[in-house]
Amino acid sequence: MNVRHAVAGHEVLDEAEAAAASGAYRDAALPARVKAAFALTDAFLLHPDDVDEETRRAALAELTSAEIVELAFAVGRFQSGSKLRILFGLVPEIAPGTAV
After folding, report:
1. Of all residues in the chain, what percent carry a pLDDT higher than 70?
2. Apex 17 CA angle, 54 and 58, nearest 5
3. Angle between helices 32-46 and 65-87 (to 10 degrees)
4. Listed residue (37, 45, 41) closest to 63, CA to CA
5. Residue 84, Cβ neighbours under 10 Å: how many?
6. What is the pLDDT at residue 21?
7. What letter does residue 6 receive in the DSSP assignment?
8. CA 28/CA 18 separation, integer angstroms
9. pLDDT for 33-91, tens place per residue?
10. CA angle, 84 as apex, 81 and 90 as ends, to 5°?
11. C-beta of residue 32 within 8 angstroms of C-beta of residue 58
12. Phi-psi bin for 63: left (phi > 0), alpha (psi -120 to 50), beta?
């Protein structure tokens, strides 16, 4: 399972929804459930020691406990894999001007 699928739970975002969520998901025309999952993912990645109350409340309202755990594991697995690739020098060179 990849992070996009974990974020969407058992639903899958179409490409238009994924594009709408790129960087500005809070203002995008997405279901509250998807926005809650994106916000929780941001919290896990940016401030894992301090998930704010609004994010926590939205996640608990929109996602099941099992989905929150699945999301946390998916994000952790992705982040761990990324760090290992960097450690072992397996990151491909990025062309100048390419966003990562």
Report:
1. 73
2. 15
3. 40
4. 37
5. 10
6. 64
7. H
8. 10
9. 989 999 999 999 888 888 999 999 999 999 999 999 999 999 989 888 888 888 888 87
10. 100
11. yes
12. beta
Sequence-ordered list of residues with C-beta below 8 angstroms from that of 86, at least 6 positions apart, any chain: none
Domain range list for the chain: 3-87
Residue 70 token pair? 């699945």
pLDDT tens across 3-14, in order? Answer: 554 554 456 667
Give CA–CA dist 71/15, Å, rounded.
20
Kindly state the greatest CA–CA separation across the chain: 42
Helices 53-62 & 32-46, crossing angle to 10 degrees? Answer: 140
User: What's the pLDDT band for 26 if we cut at 50, 70, 90?
Assistant: confident
CA distance 97 to 67: 36
User: Which residue type is seen at 77?
Assistant: R
User: Hey, what amino acid is at 47?
Assistant: H
